[in-house]
Design brief:
about 475 residues; alpha/beta; Aminopeptidase; Alpha-Beta Plaits; 2 domains; nine-stranded mixed sheet; 15 helices; about 20% strand; manganese; Bact_exopeptidase_dim_dom
Length: about 475
């Protein structure tokens, strides 16, 4: 039934494309023409987009829940579907040697710097259907409207939609496989990383008839001189937009991130025979550290003096953007050793280092006081990425126009948000300037079957992208 609906929509779109340039000459006034175009936008940007998101949401490697990891059978099926939809929108398509799906139109000047629009189509395990695919489907829908209206060939620069093959990093525990390759920052050694079954990235590519070598991996990198900028639409993965009552928000930047592994070593002691004054309990020490972490990150200004290393502006940034969590705690054997992980994110890299210093200093103090030993290992670091001010301004205007068109008058500005989660835009920032739009999601829930975006918010994201692409006419 869904396939029949798609055929009908495609047929309707082609028919309207053939007649749209003659709407007014056939006797309709400008107001009727505008009504017809509004209906078209809803048909493609909302109804068809939602249908396609639902269709992708059924393409899974598991029964009963959504799972699509790097170049799995479901991922290949999803990539082929996306490629068909790109072609339906009037784009020339190809799949590169890292499994990324590309759709491109050259516009009036094929040698001009290109606008890239993208997101990812892989998922976490037991995922929702919007994280990643929303950005791809909204972009394809916007391009399709441009094509139907006869404007696609009038663009002054090439526009390329990219569906990245891996952002979540579930299969190989290495994020941004697709976008990092395009940006030219994927290490060649990544090809030899193994999944749980022992297959390497290179093995998986060969199983899918992609014979990748060091040379053609390096050839995937886009020349920065050929790219004008990158735009990504993504669900917020947080509750701010829902709380503010807006479907869209502009992203000012993506938080930097540090992951620590803290190991606390004490000694086992009989629960009833070792006096409290002589106990070396690592669990109690770890608990004190975790509680301090929470206090530090809720109120950094109370623990960090305003000096040259952490001035007032840095403290202000930390107060609004710092998020710290403990993801895992384990004990072995019994309770003589305790390890826990710390995930620390903020938009301010200098502030992040200051927080790590303060946290580390207090952890060592706690260990000394409690007569236990501890080690702190930095397992991952990524610097914050700021969105380009020009792109952000254009996206803000486009999003404002989209929301105003749907709601009428708007009394306040669209929210400006920080992203605490990583996105393909982080990798692409090594290639070109970036801009992002967030889309409201119910309850801020993501990476879950409960992930949900309203149909009209899908429409709003498509309208905003359409308005933004039209700035390239």
């Amino acid at each position: 039934m869904a396939f029949s609906i798609i055929i009908f929509i495609s047929f309707f779109s082609v028919l309207l494309s053939a007649t749209s340039t003659n709407i007014i000459s056939l006797g309709e006034g400008a107001e009727d023409s505008e009504t017809r175009l509004k209906d078209l936008y809803q048909e493609i940007l909302r109804d068809e987009a939602v249908l396609r998101l639902q269709q992708l949401g059924q393409v899974s490697d598991s029964d009963g829940y959504l799972e699509r990891t790097f170049l799995s059978p479901a991922s290949v099926t999803a990539g082929n579907l996306i490629r068909q939809w790109m072609e339906d929108a009037g784009l020339r398509t190809w799949i590169d040697c890292m499994g990324n799906v590309h759709g491109r139109v050259e516009g009036r000047n094929a040698s001009a710097e290109a606008l890239l629009i993208g997101s990812h189509f892989d998922t976490v395990i037991d995922a929702g259907m919007f994280d990643g695919p929303l950005g791809i489907i909204s972009a394809i829908a916007a391009v399709k409207v441009m094509n139907i209206c006869g404007k696609l060939g009038m663009l002054r620069r090439p526009v390329e939609v990219i569906a990245f093959s891996d952002e979540e990093g579930v299969r190989f525990q290495s994020t941004f496989l697709g976008s990092a390759a395009v940006a030219g920052v994927l290490p060649v050694s990544t090809l030899q990383i193994s999944d749980k079954s022992g297959l390497t990235v290179q093995d998986v590519l060969k199983k899918n008839s992609i014979d990748i070598t060091e040379e053609n991996l390096l050839q995937l990198k886009y020349d920065p001189k050929t790219v004008w900028g990158y735009v990504e639409v993504h669900i917020e993965q947080g509750p701010v937009l829902e709380w503010a009552g807006f479907p869209l928000g502009v992203v000012e930047g993506i938080a930097g991130q540090t992951r620590l592994k803290v190991t606390v070593r004490g000694s086992q002691g009989h629960a009833g025979t070792v006096p409290m004054s002589m106990r070396r309990d690592p669990m109690a020490a770890a608990a004190e550290m975790i509680v301090f972490l929470e206090s530090l990150c809720k109120h950094p200004e109370k623990f960090m003096p305003s000096d040259s290393n952490c001035n007032s502006s840095t403290l202000e940034s930390l107060s609004s953007s710092l998020v710290c969590t403990v993801g895992e705690i384990s004990t072995w054997p019994s309770a003589s050793n305790v390890t826990f992980t710390v995930d620390l994110r903020t938009i301010n890299d200098m502030g992040r280092e200051a927080v790590i210093y303060e946290l580390s200093d207090r952890i060592y103090q706690i260990c000394d006081t409690r007569s236990v030993s501890c080690t702190i290992d930095r397992k991952h670091d990524a610097n914050a990425v700021m969105c380009d001010s020009e792109l952000s301004s254009q996206l803000r205007s486009s999003a404002f126009a989209a929301v105003k068109r749907m709601r009428g008058e708007i009394q306040s500005e669209l929210p400006v948000l920080m992203s605490g989660a990583g996105h393909d835009a982080m990798a692409i920032s090594h290639l070109t300037k970036i801009g992002m739009l967030f889309v409201r999601c119910r309850g801020g829930v993501s990476h879950s079957p409960a992930e949900h975006v309203l149909d009209d918010d899908v429409w709003a994201s498509g309208l905003a992208l359409l308005s933004f692409i039209e700035t390239q006419l």
